[in-house]
């Protein structure tokens, strides 16, 4: 399934043959390097306590690439890999590392300009027949921070109302 896009959106999302490396690098700097710096900064304190929780934010575009955000999706794929390797590395110190991946959320600064019909298309494509809210997404993050997830690490929880089955 491909979501309809306006001509203005299509001009902002280049095709793979016109996406330059600088766009990839910018996304890698934000998504991957930012997470790496945060984990490295927090790890020492977490190790000294023998406990910690790290939750990275991903995207359901890895499993359902309906929008050709090549640079963004590639950076989030790298972040998922980092999440899993960090889980293996930090687990013996009592630190869990997981990822929560969402789709379009209703409504955030990033989705405020999204036409209502796109939200309706997504809602009608999910088993829950609605678009996930930022609060629902945050609930999944809170799960990974809670004692109930103490035996869960290296996982990617997709929170999108069931649009993607991962």
Short description, anyone?
This protein has a single domain, classed as Rossmann fold (3-Layer(aba) Sandwich), CATH 3.40.50.720. It has 5 helices and 3 strands.
Question: Which sequence of strands runs across the widest sheet?
Answer: 1-2-3
**Helix run count:** 5
Shape: globular
Assign the CATH architecture. 3-Layer(aba) Sandwich
Largest sheet: 3 strands, parallel
From the helix content, strand content and strand pairing, which structural class follows?
alpha/beta
**Share of residues in helices:** 40-55%
Number of domains: 1
CATH fold-level label: Rossmann fold
CATH superfamily: NAD(P)-binding Rossmann-like Domain
The N- to C-terminal Cα distance equals: 16 Å
Which band does the percent of strand residues land in? 5-15%
What would your notes on this structure say?
With 166 residues, the protein is α/β, with parallel strands linked by helices. The protein has one domain (21-159): NAD(P)-binding Rossmann-like Domain (Rossmann fold, 3-Layer(aba) Sandwich). Helix content is 47%, strand content 12%. The chain has five helices and three strands. The protein has helices at 7-12, 21-49, 70-90, 116-125, 134-145, and strands spanning 52-59, 95-102, 156-159. A three-stranded parallel β-sheet has the order 1-2-3, with helices on both faces. It is globular and about 50 Å long. The two termini are 16 Å apart. The model is unreliable at 1-11 (pLDDT under 50).
Keywords:
166 residues, single chain, globular, three-stranded parallel beta sheet, 3 strands, Rossmann fold, alpha/beta, 5 helices, disordered N terminus
